[in-house]
Design brief:
This protein has 371 residues and is of the alpha+beta class. It contains ten helices and 14 strands.
Length: 371
């Protein structure tokens, strides 16, 4: 599967799509309320099929007749979204993970609706028909494969995007020969490499924090409901979007560079939730999870092997020279000396070397052993 993202041109007719997203938001909230009421009365959850049948009946009534302005497949997808969310919630509870159940959303903040087999038609001249109306979009690249779903999504600025999911037949890219590297994610360094080619942490949110504070102050001083407040809210959303775009650009360029440079890349399977509890906003600013997704994609394209080692392997605590494990190493200790061979280690460099050794040993099917 491959997803293409295109931005729709600004036009007056786009208000129809905004109305459709608002309808999707009202249907979502109605189904969430139904779920909560049903569970309170009977102690059970409603399946997606029952929700779909219920919506079909409601659409025939005068009160909910406006729901017919949204495609039937988009309405069915909303029921499926809620069903998936509740299944994930119950699975997390079963495994002792505390999460909140699906909750209500403000209609104006609801983001998208999805069409599957019907309700849309793609045209050659970067135009698309959605529920009977033609829209034009910025076609930055051609669409390959068979279209499976189309999602119309709006961002906080009110811009509309098309996300087209296509099924493509990709030729299997064979792994290539070349250099390998171990990468350790850090805070001061974005990536510490086993070969010394470290990447510094850009921290885009930290760089733009003064501007964000300024925009937040401007928003808080505006009268609620005024046009000035609306403009200030859009300015703030634009500031956040600029930071996110810079981070995304950095991730894609770096991942492409690494995938083309190395034939094998070894990384740790990160416990991002645990890291976020410890360091909070800084982990969100670095965006490790998104970077790993982009790196996986670029490695597949380049024929690079991406190896993830177990998150519980003590990469920082293991001496890369003799294999001694310093169990009492704390997070505050950035350097340490091995009690067995007296080698001094920088914890991040040592971790990167160990990740590289374990990853390449796993790749070759050998027993993990010190270098």
């Amino acid at each position: 599967m491959r997803t293409y993202s295109y931005k729709l041109y600004h036009a007056k007719r786009n208000k129809n799509l905004h109305k459709s997203i608002n309808i999707a938001g009202s249907i979502y909230n109605h189904l969430i309320a139904l779920h909560k009421r049903y569970y309170r009365l009977y102690g059970k959850s409603l399946s997606a099929n029952k929700l779909k049948k219920h919506i079909t009946k409601l659409k025939r009534t005068k009160k909910y007749a406006y729901w017919n302005n949204l495609g039937s497949q988009a309405i069915q997808d909303i029921a499926e979204r809620i069903d998936r969310a509740y299944k994930l919630f119950y699975r997390n509870l079963k495994h002792g993970i505390k999460t909140a159940p699906p909750s209500f959303k403000k209609v104006r903040r609801y983001k998208s609706f999805t069409l599957k087999q019907a309700g849309y038609k793609l045209h050659e001249d970067n135009k698309i028909t959605i529920m009977g109306k033609i829209y034009k979009y910025h076609q930055s690249r051609g669409i390959e494969g068979k279209v499976k779903t189309i999602t119309v999504k709006r961002d906080p600025l009110g811009d509309l995007y098309l996300y087209i999911v296509c099924q493509i037949e990709q030729e299997e890219i064979k792994p290539r020969s070349g250099k390998s590297v171990g990468l350790d994610f850090g805070l001061t360094q974005f990536l510490t490499a086993s070969d010394g080619n470290d990447i510094k942490s850009p921290l885009f949110f930290k760089q733009g924090s003064k501007e964000i504070k300024k925009l937040n102050r401007a928003l808080s001083s505006k009268k609620k409901g005024s046009n000035n407040r609306k403009r200030a809210r859009l300015d703030l959303a634009r500031g956040y979007k600029h930071i996110a775009n810079r981070r995304k650009d950095f991730h894609f360029k770096l991942a492409k560079e690494l995938a083309e440079k190395y034939a094998a890349i070894c990384i740790e399977d990160l416990n991002l939730k645990g890291m976020q509890r410890l360091w909070g906003r800084k982990i969100s600013d670095l965006g490790f999870a998104n970077f790993v997704k982009v790196l996986e994609y670029q490695c597949k394209k380049a024929g690079t092997e991406l190896i993830k080692i177990d998150r519980f392997y003590p990469s920082s605590k293991t001496c890369s020279e003799c294999g001694f494990v310093y169990k009492d190493l704390t997070l505050a200790e950035r350097t340490w000396t091995c009690k067995s061979c007296d080698t001094s280690h920088d914890r991040d460099v040592n971790a990167a070397i160990n990740i590289h050794r374990v990853g390449t040993s796993t790749l070759k099917g050998e027993v993990v052993r010190p270098a």
